[in-house]
Design brief:
By secondary structure, the protein is of the alpha/beta class. The chain is built from 6 helices and 7 strands.
């Protein structure tokens, strides 16, 4: 089991994404930035394009959308304890970039989230 936000966990997300059949015209780059209280940061990028999804560690310039949050919020969203929308409305999730790009592709993105379910099921969380 991979620890949430570890390099192995990001690798597990990437492996899960291989199973997804993405429409060839769908192009989107989603960046996630998660900060710890110690000024540490874990960033990863979900790149959707050319009929596939890839997940890799780090940041990318020109992401279509960037989500930034602290670790507790990221974990609560990943565990399904709160939705991203609830976190955003509570000021716990910051969004940068082109929100319309995500809204216009919400159906396709829901399929991506479903593919990551197996990786989430095998995740070790900070409190466990």
């Amino acid at each position: 089991m991979a620890q949430f936000l570890s390099p192995e966990w990001i690798s597990d997300l990437d492996a899960s994404a291989e199973a997804l059949d993405v429409p060839s015209g769908l192009q989107l780059v989603v960046q996630q930035i998660v900060s710890d209280g110690d000024a540490r940061e874990v960033s990863y990028v979900i790149e959707i394009g050319e009929g596939r999804v890839q997940v890799r560690p780090g940041r990318v310039e020109g992401a279509d959308i960037t989500f930034a949050q602290d670790r507790a919020t990221a974990e609560a969203i990943a565990r399904g304890e709160i939705s991203a929308q609830e976190a955003f409305l509570a000021g716990r999730l910051r969004v940068g970039g082109d929100l319309r790009a995500v809204m216009d592709r919400s159906r396709e993105l829901a399929a991506v989230s479903d593919v990551f379910a197996s990786a989430r099921a095998a995740t070790t969380w900070s409190g466990t």
